[in-house]
Amino acid sequence: MPDGSTDTRSLAALVQPGRVHRRVYTDPEIFELEMARLFGRSWLYVGHASQVPSPGDFITTELGRQPVILIRHQDGTIRVLLNRCTHRGVKLLAERSGNRPRLVCLYHGWTYDTDGALARVPIDEGCAPGFRTCDFNLATAARTGTYRGFVFASLAPEGGGLPTFDEWIAPMRRNIDDIVDRAPAGEIALDVGVHRYRFRGNWKMQVENVIDSYHVPFSHASTVNRKGVQFSRREGDAEGAKVVDGQRTAASWKRRRGHDVGHGHGWTSNTELDEGSRSSPAWNEYRQALDAAVGRERAEQILTPRMHNSMLYPNASFMGLNMHIRVIRPLAVDLTEVNVYPIRLVGAPEAINVRNTRLLNVTHAAASFVQSDDIEAFARQQAGLASRQGDWVDISRGLDADEPGDEPGTRCAPSTGELLVRAQFRAWLDLMREA
Ligand code: FES
Ligand SMILES: [Fe+2]
Question: Can you give the pTM of this predicted structure?
Answer without folding.
Answer: 0.96
